[in-house]
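Request:
You are asked to prepare a plain-text protein record giving the amino acid sequence and the backbone structure tokens, at your earliest convenience.
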Amino acid sequence: MQLRLSLLAQALLFVLFASLLAGCVSTEERYQRVQTYQKEGKPVAAAFEMVKVLDDDSGWPNGRRELNTLATEAMTHLMGRSRERLQSGAPLDAVASLDRIDALRSACRSVDVSINEPADYGSLRARSVDASYALLMDRAEEAEANGQWSAAANAYDEARRFAPGDRALSDIDRRQADVHLAWAEQDMERGAFRSAFSRAETAAGFLPEQSLMLDDVRGIQDAAVAEGTRLAAFLPLWQTREAADTLPDGFLRELNDVLTLRYWSDPPIFVASVPPVPTRRVLRRYDLHRTVLSREQAARVGRQLETDFVVAGDVVGYREERDDVETTPRTAEWSISTPAGRGATRGREAAEPRDTTFFVEQYDRELYATVEIRLIDPRAGRTLVTHTIEVDVEGPMERGVFDGDWRNLDLSGAETSLFRPEDVRKRERDLELALADAVAAAVAQETFDRIVETIP
């Protein structure tokens, strides 16, 4: 049996080694590719492959001389292709061929082979660049005239590479601003307010600070916000019966406070919130302020407040776990200031120790909360989105453990804090507040995102 396993292991190792070899290309194989490319009439590919040969083996026989010959042939080929593409009205392709020459010369330098720039290279590049600029500007202007804003913006962007100077770049900036402002106005006409705001913002990025066109930008953005903003009533979260059995005391109140004061009162652009006072008055009027709300009940509140949306939700789950628990023994003396402490040492000689042992328990406390949020259209009385948010936090905890009354021990201030209930509870409470903060942040982010997504 051992022999069979050994043979199997050797076979597997052989297959693995063979696979690794198959994935590698030797220098000889690379050189064979060079020769193949030459036979196939692919001088550019042959030159780049010869660079790889020298990169693998800098001492390859006659390698640098051969690369010089191959590179010269490749550049002659690329120059011819560039001239042909320029003459046929494809200047962008002509520039691409010249860029290929630059890449080949750079690759040659990486293996210590210097190749001179081809004759007429500079003149050909200048003519190709000028023709490319003119082509792209014509293309952009035609698209702009036809209201093809995306095509116009893309063509102007491409033209930047070939712009002959700062004045030309400034001209492109102005044209880009015109395109995006016209695009924003079109978005406003079709009710795409958020898109209009964003395109106006893009237009502003092309304009100098003193440009009068910035007034147009602000006008479009103000109109977009005025017409596109949606009013939402954010109802206090409640808790399901299952969650209520496990939630820490005060957690729900703290969560709602953070949501109301930190998030619902400061919504993002395009979202407006009903103040909490009228919202809670309506909830109390219909006796809905301490219960899980149905879709119909939440919609009724929204109609009373005349909102576009109602946000309702509940904490549907909570649990906590302990991890990495470590227990460390410590020694303390019985306190002689308490009757029990004196009783524990009664009958001992004065020289005898009055020590006893307590333990410090250290662990990671992990808290998990699950919240379900519903975005409701009060006019239609339907739920638009339901999303579930799960959040967890963790933090180190420690407490004292003693088989008896810890107050009968002579402890330091720090040791006393390990046992004192209010100190232990404060450490627990701090982590619970951290969970409330994290849940509120996640709920607000998700909810605001979902509301904004409804605005085109």
